[in-house]
Design a protein that fits this description.
The complex is a heterodimer of chains A (89) and B (481). Chain A has 2 helices and 2 strands; from the N terminus they run H-H-E-E. With 89 residues, chain A is mainly alpha-helical. In chain A, strands 1-2 form a two-stranded antiparallel sheet. Chain B has an 11-stranded mixed sheet with strand order 1-3-2-4-6-5-10-11-9-7-8, with helices on both faces. The chains are: A mainly alpha (89), B alpha/beta (481). Chains A and B meet through helix 1 and helix 2 of A and helix 9, helix 10, helix 11, helix 12 and helix 13 of B.
Chain lengths: 89, 481
């Protein structure tokens, strides 16, 4: 069983402010509890394999200049840098 | 001017000079203006559509080579990028985002002289199955405006069903093309994973999502697939389809084909009317010469939990970029510390996206990954093994697309777990990468019912042949608009 404190902690790590307890914590709680059904799937011995793409199948790693200055499409930039607020020490 | 024609009929009519692209597109825009206040399918309408159509007419008259679409009006789900157009993902977060490039599917359709009449509504970032989670209000089902049109590609299905365009592109992560297609009585197609490039589709759960067409007929879907499928160097998950022609041989029939009826998809919780329609569809497939037999896919009962666990995890990563620094709605930097600034920016996600992001942080986290994320991946592996084994004996699988009828707006919005179960029949194709189609099949008290067929990977051509054969067995009423 997932606790509400755990949910709130993860929300903070995901940089999400929870301002509506019922809207978020209660519903997320119900959703995660539904996932407990996975415990009865009997897949403990199953191997997880991921598809592998050989490097030869990847496109050539070369710089292709874009026809516009993409950084100018960002909300906050200075020269070639993205502007961001200062981090607290 | 008859707007109620298929894509192939439109092409034929323009090609032979019976209608002009300009007249048809102008009437389509007029139709959008007349009906969309009620339906809310469109988020933006392309004001230059008629001018573009006029240019295509000029090309035809001058004898220039014209692309296969001949100015066909198409709507595009608002998570697919069109250069210099708004792409909002139906989110306040991207309210003013203008894409600097075209998605590969858009480039391909532009080369074929398609006209994009507008961007259509969806659940925010494609998370939902009713279009109620759009930040711009829900779309309405054209068959009954009190009912949901399905989702997340609800705007796509509504626009095709209500004759606001000839065809549409949506995206299908867990049934997001097939579910609204079923609810609105259009054809909806989820191709084999990798058949259509995802370059320019704003990612939600990239390991399983695919772009797919919604059309009036199965032949139109094959026509669209011919134009948008195939390798793309910008998406290394794409596969070489050897320029397969999906239209040729589509009338071949299904005589002698072995079709498995997935018993877990017609069991507990199914609406009796859906069950009856499914039995009718099976009987029609048998009349066409197919051999139908009940089969079991044991992992289906865990598939929805596995699907939401995997997609939420991928969403947690994919949506991390929406921080108002790289992407996101604008507010000034001054007066904020870095973390509090990003947290404030991310408050602009809607409730369903926020919930899934929290889940996406939780299920793969230390101490919980073994219980949730790893098990979900194992269910995905086992389900794929089960279905691969079945496809050694069977050519196709059949089930209702959705086990329940379209429901009223607001009816399930506060119960996320009951909404989960609406996906039970569609997520299997996504988790296993198999192609799947929803074909309009019946109508119960004015509400549409779709039947889903599935084939083995890269057997898209066979799947379309079967979909076409099934489609020919029914005659359905016209949308009451």
């Amino acid at each position: 069983m997932v606790t509400e404190e755990e949910i709130k902690k993860v929300a903070k790590l995901m940089r999400i402010d929870i301002d509506d307890y019922i809207e978020y914590v209660d519903k997320v709680h119900a959703m995660i509890n539904y996932f407990d059904i996975l415990d009865s799937a009997g897949v403990e011995d199953e191997e997880i394999s991921m598809p592998e793409i050989p490097i030869s199948n990847l496109r050539e790693d070369k710089h292709i200049p874009f026809d516009q200055k993409l950084i100018e499409k960002l909300n906050h930039y200075k020269g070639t840098y993205v502007r961001a607020p200062k981090m607290s020490s | 001017m008859n707007l109620k024609i298929s894509a192939l009929e439109y092409v034929q009519e323009v090609k032979t000079g019976n209608i002009s692209a300009e007249d048809f597109v102008a009437k389509t825009i007029e139709r959008i203006q007349n009906v969309d206040d009620k339906l809310n399918a469109f988020l933006t309408v392309n004001e230059t559509s008629v001018d573009q159509a006029r240019e295509i007419d000029k090309k035809i008259k001058s004898g220039y080579k014209v692309g296969d679409c001949f100015g066909m009006p198409i709507s595009i789900k608002d998570n697919i990028c069109i250069k210099d157009s708004k792409t909002t993902c139906a989110s306040k977060m991207l309210e003013n985002y203008i894409s600097p490039y075209d998605a590969t599917v858009i480039s391909k359709l532009k080369q074929q002289d398609a006209i994009f009449v507008g961007k259509v509504n969806m659940d925010e970032f494609a998370m939902g199955l009713t279009t109620e989670f759009s930040a711009y209000g829900p779309s309405k089902n054209p068959w009954n405006n009190d009912y949901v049109p399905g989702g997340s590609s609800g705007g796509s299905a509504v626009s095709v069903s209500a004759f606001e365009c000839v065809a549409s592109l949506g995206s299908d992560t867990g049934g997001s093309v097939r579910n609204p297609a079923s609810f609105c009585s259009t054809v909806g197609y989820k191709p084999t994973y990798g058949l259509i490039s995802r370059y320019g589709l704003i990612s939600y759960a990239n390991s399983i999502e695919q772009i797919g067409p919604l059309t009036r007929t199965v032949k139109d879907t094959a026509f669209m697939l011919n134009m948008i499928a195939g390798l793309d160097s910008n998406d290394n998950t794409t596969i070489d389809n050897k320029n397969e022609d999906y239209l040729s041989g589509i009338e071949s029939g299904i005589e002698g084909k072995k079709i498995g009826i997935i018993k877990e998809m017609i069991g507990e919780g199914i609406d009796p009317k859906i069950l009856s329609a499914t039995k009718n569809a099976i009987s029609k497939l048998e009349n066409l010469g197919a051999i139908c037999e009940e089969i079991s896919l044991d992992m289906v009962k865990y598939s929805v939990a596995a699907y939401y666990t995997i997609t939420a995890t991928e969403a947690g990563s994919n949506l991390a970029r929406f921080d108002n620094l790289r992407y996101g709605y604008d507010f000034p930097l001054e007066g904020y510390e870095f973390n509090s600034y990003i947290s404030k920016a991310r408050c602009n996600f809607g409730p369903e996206v926020t919930r899934r992001l929290i889940i996406g942080g939780f299920v793969p986290s230390t101490g919980h990954a073994g219980k949730y994320f790893s098990k979900a991946l194992k269910v995905k592996m086992k389900l794929t093994k089960e279905i691969d084994k079945i496809f050694k004996k069977f050519d196709l699988l059949v089930a209702p697309t959705v086990p329940i009828l379209p429901f009223k707006l607001g009816e399930k919005i506060d119960d996320p777990v009951s909404l989960f179960l609406v996906d039970i029949n569609t997520v299997t194709a996504n988790l296993t990468g198999k192609p799947s189609i929803s074909v309009p099949f019946a109508n119960s008290n004015g509400l549409p019912i779709g039947i889903q067929l599935m084939a083995d990977s890269l057997n898209d051509k066979l799947l379309l042949q079967a979909g076409y054969a099934l489609e020919q067995t029914v005659s359905l009423p016209e949308v009451p608009l």
